[in-house]
Specification:
single chain, 261 residues, mainly beta, 17 strands, 55% strand, globular
Length: 261
């Protein structure tokens, strides 16, 4: 029988370890209410860029997103498509750039805020933007996200996540894994001053999980179905950070430096 264990390294800043005797709250209701509110807000925008990318037997996809700011949702697609894009924006300067390279191995889908137009855009101009991205459940997914100030809901339930690299400067970031991931990804999150919540992180079935927080707030729920061994590295700045561990989860802490516990 395989053991279930994390080697956890925590350092630099204020953090709290909490044992979850009961299953953490289900995030679905609050997340979907927020999604509906953002959808109503986005529906008022006159400018929208939609695109469907056909599924032609691909086995993998690299999703590379660079987003100056606004609302962002990522989830699995229920259609027989490689990807569905619905990108709402409020003026021409913010029209997204989409590039799909089907010839690379694996194929690469890039979605970006225009580089040459971002310098004169204020954060107030970005609040109503709403990018919605859906990806096929059939492909191994490598996801790279760089965002300035985003309110992001990343629901990886049903996706075959193989690699994750998130860099968020400010805003709110919520990750969800409601089912066990079939791959063993390496996950890296740099949160800056963002507020980060992670639900069902054991369901991510990660090999390595690295989190770096600056002046923001985080709450990470290591609950769900995990088998084998993994490495968790948490580095904190001056924010308030909470780590919730499932009661039956074996954890070995190698280095621990807290200013409060």
């Amino acid at each position: 029988m395989k053991s279930t264990r994390f080697l956890m390294m925590l350092c630099l800043g204020l953090a709290f370890l909490i044992n979850c005797r009961e299953r953490p709250r289900e995030p679905r209701e609050s997340s979907e209410r927020r999604y509906d509110r953002r959808e109503r807000q986005a529906s008022s925008l006159e400018q929208r860029l939609t695109q469907e990318i056909a599924f032609t037997g691909q086995t993998a996809l690299v999703l590379d997103v660079e987003y100056t700011g606004g609302n962002l949702d990522l989830e699995a697609s229920d259609k027989d498509l490689l990807a569905e894009l619905d990108l709402a924006y409020d003026r021409d300067e913010l029209r997204p750039e989409i590039n799909f390279d089907s010839t690379s191995s694996p194929p690469v889908l890039q979605i970006r805020t225009p580089h040459d137009r971002r310098e004169n855009i204020s954060l107030d101009d970005l609040r109503t933007n709403h990018w919605r991205i859906k990806v096929s459940r059939k492909v191994a997914l490598e996801c790279e996200l760089d965002a300035g100030a985003a309110d992001a809901w990343l629901n990886f339930t049903g996706l075959q996540l193989e690699d994750l690299n998130l860099n968020v400067g400010a805003g709110e970031l919520e990750l969800e894994f409601r089912e066990r991931n079939t791959a063993k990804p390496r996950m890296r999150i740099n949160a800056g001053a963002a507020t980060v919540t992670g639900h069902g992180l054991c369901n991510a079935n990660f090999e390595v999980f690295k989190f770096a927080g600056g002046a923001g707030k985080s709450e990470l729920f290591f609950d769900g179905d995990y088998e084998g061994e993994g490495h968790v590295e948490l580095k904190y700045g001056v924010g308030l950070n909470t780590v919730r561990l499932a009661k039956n989860l074996g954890v070995k802490i190698r280095k621990l430096f807290f200013s409060g516990l």
